[in-house]
Amino acid sequence: xxxxxxxxxxxxxxxxxxxxxxxxxxxxxxxxxxxxxxxxxxxxxxxxxxxxxxxxxxxxxxxxxxxxxxxxxxxxxxxxxxxxxxxxxxxxxxxxxxxxxxxxxxxxxxxxxxxxxxxxxxxxxxxxxxxxxxxxxxxxxxxxxxxxxxxxxxxxxxxxxxxxxxxxxxxxxxxxxxxxxxxxxxxxxxxxxxxxxxxxxxxxxxxxxxxxxxxxxxxxxxxxxxxxxxxxxxxxxxxxxxxxxxxxxxxxxxxxxxxxx
Length: 261
Known about the structure:
This protein is mainly alpha-helical. The chain is about 75% helix and about 0% strand.
């Protein structure tokens, strides 16, 4: 094991030490740390999106610390240790790549995807997870999980044949949502909104787009354009609170035009 990894593990041991460790770190559990693990994963994705390699290095370190933290909690309970985590993923990668580490012939990317799913099916069987959707993590962001669920189901033929059918379904769900809103039934409207989002996740999969990535880009675009509105209003000696929708909408269109010019 490298000196850097050993040093990191020792820092974690010290932080969790009942005698002189950090009070905050000592009181943490798998459940309390899990949200930070998810957050750090998003920060890694954000650094990649921004192409900030310096920031990426730091965020990968933060994410690695999350792995070390969970492994330390498990080691204290006699479950497993960091070495077991590293050995487990090493063995899994070797098992799933027999064309690299074994005697199988070279595979194309498409052939590897098929073979990968076959190995995963065997692994699910070994874990007594027999349902096709059993190991799609519940803790994933809902849009990402929806895309993964539909992708898994599509592998056994449970899928719309083309984009046109998905778009037709999108229109159907939109009309159903409109009907429930018009009827004033908010509970049914919420359910229909969920159906609509699920179809959109399907659409993203068909377009080979990660729905979270698509929405992340739109979020960034919204922030960028709204900041342009604030800057334009500031140049007029105003704040958004002192403006109105018509003025801000016009400034939004200016920001949009500037991006396309």
